[in-house]
TrEMBL record:
Cofactor(s) it depends on: Zn(2+)
Gene3D superfamilies given in the database record: Zn peptidases
Similarity annotation: Belongs to the peptidase M14 family.
One Pfam match: AstE_AspA_cat
Domain named Peptidase M14: residues: 30-304
Active site (UniProt): 273
Domain of life: Bacteria
Protein name per its UniProtKB record: M14 family metallocarboxypeptidase
Length: 304
C-alpha cells in the first residue's frame, strides 16, 4: 500500500510542522512504566555498580539514564558494551540485557569488564515508540552532530573507556509495527511516499561492511538458532534491501546511518534483530535469544 493519506497526521507530500509534531506526541500515551526497569537495575546493584550517566526531560517528565558496570573494573581486561532499548519499543532488548546480567554476568568476572545500558530511550520505552520525544530516531544519531539526547549521553559515558572495548552488541527487535506504524510515520513526517517492505521472519544480525568479522557474526547465529529461527534472505539474496553476507547476517555501512553499534570502534560489533510477532516464536523466546546472542558475542571476543 502506498496511499498518500496512509498516515493520519499531516498533509500528504508536506513535511510536518510543529502542530503535527505536537499531535504525534499527544498520541503517544504511556502504556508501561520505566520504573519497572529501574527496579530491576536497583536489584542488580548488589553485584554491579549502578551509574547514572544523565537524564532527559520530556515536557513534565524527567528520566534518569542508568547503566550497570562491573564493580571491579580492571583496565588490564578487555571490556564489553551491551546496549538495549535504543528504540524504546523493542522490548526484548531491554529485558534481554537485564536478564543477561542477572543470570550470566558474573560468569565474566575477572575475564571481561561489563558495561550495560539496558534502556537507552526511557520515554520511548514507556510509549512503545521508535522515536524519542523530539521525533528523532536515536539509532540514527550516534555521531557528534546527532540531535538525540539519549545518544549524546551514552556517547559521553563511554568516551573515557572507548579504547578498552573489544566487543559491543546492541539489542534490537523488528516488529510488525515497523510497517504498520513507524515507517508510515517517517514518510508522513518527512513529506515523502511510504513504500512498503516485508518484515523479516526470524532473528538476524546487522553487520558493518566496513568491519565485517563474519566469523563473529556466524558464531552468534549458531548460538541463537538453537533458541529461535533465523530469518531467510529473499530470492535476490537480500533482506530489507541489503545484501545478506551470510545466513542471518545483513551487511551495510553502519557508520553511514550513525548506528549505536559504531560508537565504540570495537573490533567486534553487531546489532541483533528478533521478530517477536512471528507465529514461530514468542516474547520469552526472544528474550532468551537476546541473552544467547550476548553470551556468544562475549565468548567469541574473549577467545579471539
Amino acid at each position: 500500500m502506498t496511499s498518500a493519506n496512509f498516515y493520519p497526521i499531516g498533509t500528504p507530500g508536506q513535511p510536518w510542522g510543529e502542530s503535527e509534531r505536537e499531535q504525534w506526541r499527544k498520541n503517544q500515551l504511556p502504556s508501561r512504566s520505566y520504573d519497572d526497569v529501574l527496579s530491576q537495575i536497583r536489584m542488580l546493584g548488589n553485584e554491579y555498580k549502578i551509574v547514572k550517566y544523565g537524564e532527559i526531560t520530556c515536557a513534565s517528565d524527567t528520566y534518569p539514564l542508568m547503566a550497570l558496570r562491573s564493580d571491579d573494573w580492571d583496565e588490564s581486561l578487555p571490556a564489553a558494551l551491551v546496549t538495549g532499548g535504543v528504540h524504546g519499543y523493542e522490548t526484548s532488548g531491554v529485558l534481554g540485557a537485564l536478564r543477561f546480567l542477572k543470570e550470566h554476568g558474573q560468569e565474566y568476572k575477572g575475564k571481561m569488564n561489563l558495561l550495560v545500558a539496558p534502556c537507552v530511550s526511557p520515554w520511548a520505552f514507556e510509549r512503545i515508540s521508535r522515536w524519542n520525544y523530539h521525533l528523532i530516531d536515536p539509532n540514527r544519531s550516534f555521531y557528534a552532530e546527532g540531535k538525540a539526547e539519549e545518544a549524546q549521553a551514552l556517547m559521553s559515558l563511554i568516551a573515557p573507556l572507548r579504547e578498552q572495548f573489544r566487543v559491543h552488541i546492541d539489542l534490537h527487535e523488528t516488529t510488525d509495527s515497523d510497517e504498520s506504524e513507524f515507517r508510515p510515520a517517517l514518510a508522513a513526517r518527512d513529506g515523502g511516499p511510504y513504500i512498503p517492505d516485508v518484515v523479516p521472519d526470524g532473528f538476524y544480525l546487522v553487520s558493518d561492511e566496513e568491519n565485517s568479522q563474519l566469523d563473529f557474526q556466524q558464531a552468534i547465529i549458531a548460538a541463537v538458532e538453537k533458541v529461535t529461527h533465523i530469518a531467510p534472505s529473499n530470492a535476490e539474496g537480500k533482506m530489507l534491501g541489503f545484501r545478506v553476507a551470510s545466513p542471518g547476517v545483513v551487511e551495510y555501512p553502519n557508520s553511514h546511518y550513525h548506528l549505536c553499534s559504531t560508537m565504540t570502534g570495537a573490533r567486534f560489533t553487531t546489532t541483533t534483530e528478533v521478530y517477536p510477532d512471528s507465529e514461530k516464536t514468542n516474547p520469552e523466546e526472544c528474550i532468551i535469544a537476546q541473552v544467547e546472542a550476548v553470551k556468544a558475542a562475549l565468548n567469541f571476543a574473549l577467545d579471539n
